[in-house]
Amino acid sequence: MMKQISQLPLAVQLPDDETFASYISEQNQHIVEQLKHIISEVNVENSRPKACYLFGQVASGKSHLLHASCAFASSLSLTSLCLSFSELQHLSVEFLEGLEQIDLVCLDDIQLIAGDEKWQQAVFDLFNRMNEQGRCLIISGTESVAQLGLSLPDLESRLSWGVVTQIKPLSDDDKMEAFLFRAKQRGLLLQDEAVKYLFNRFSRDLGDLLQCLDQLDKASIREQRKITIPFIKEVLMLN
């Protein structure tokens, strides 16, 4: 099965900086603890479903939490796989066959298959196989279970089996702290004025801001220059 995965053109390489430690959100820290607990119970014999459905608006950190869950599983010597329905929906549903051999499977953006009953049935079947094997399944979406608009009631029921929790939107302070945390991880020392300028003049989406950080970091190394406001304007072409 793993050979099959490696041969498919999927983005299965996890970002090495998306861990629980780098997930900055005080009001969502209970979710981190819930995920750690569920993952720690993989292969432990008990009757509790080892499953979680996370939902929240775009850019609330769902993908980060899934990637962090896989990193945490790896720290426990568990196998894991994180996939997005943005990629899966273009493949055959047979891709999900055999994934119950993996300790933790994370599936992102389930709302994308709301109108595809074939894929919904495949996820339902995977859910049952994972549960039978004592494995862990974490799924994310942008809406609550009831608002996903799934056409398969059985899958809707399964999504409500385990932990169901809503991710609250990140505050601007959370985004600022997360941005500075990632900058520190890269060894970047940014002046407060430069950071405030970037936040005031660019997207408030944390993913977009971190892409900017990556772009600025690479440009700074290439040109051997500090990240100042003029440099930000030049690299990102902001006026």
Summarize the structure.
The protein is of the alpha/beta class. The protein has helices at residues 2-6, 29-40, 62-75, 85-88, 117-133, 153-159, 172-185, 192-201, 206-223, 229-236; strands at 51-55, 80-84, 104-108, 136-141, 163-166. α2 runs parallel beside α3 (62-75) and α9 (206-223) crosses α10 (229-236).
Strand content: 5-15%
Number of domains: 2
Rg: 19 Å
In CATH terms, the superfamily of the largest domain is P-loop containing nucleotide triphosphate hydrolases
> Which strand order spans the largest sheet, edge to edge or round the barrel?
2-3-4-1-5
Envelope shape: elongated
Biggest sheet details: 5 strands, parallel
Order of helices and strands: HHEHEHEHEHEHHHH
Given helix and strand content, the structural type is alpha/beta
Question: CATH topology of the largest domain, anyone?
Answer: Rossmann fold
Amino-to-carboxy terminus distance: 51 Å
Describe the fold and architecture.
This protein folds into 2 domains: 2-166, 3-Layer(aba) Sandwich (Rossmann fold); 172-236, Orthogonal Bundle (Helicase, Ruva Protein, domain 3). By secondary structure, it is of the alpha/beta class. Helix content is 46%, strand content 10%. It has a 5-stranded parallel beta sheet with strand order 2-3-4-1-5, with helices on both faces. The chain has helices at 2-6, 29-40, 62-75, 85-88, 117-133, 153-159, 172-185, 192-201, 206-223, 229-236, and strands at residues 51-55, 80-84, 104-108, 136-141, 163-166. It starts with a helix and ends with a helix.
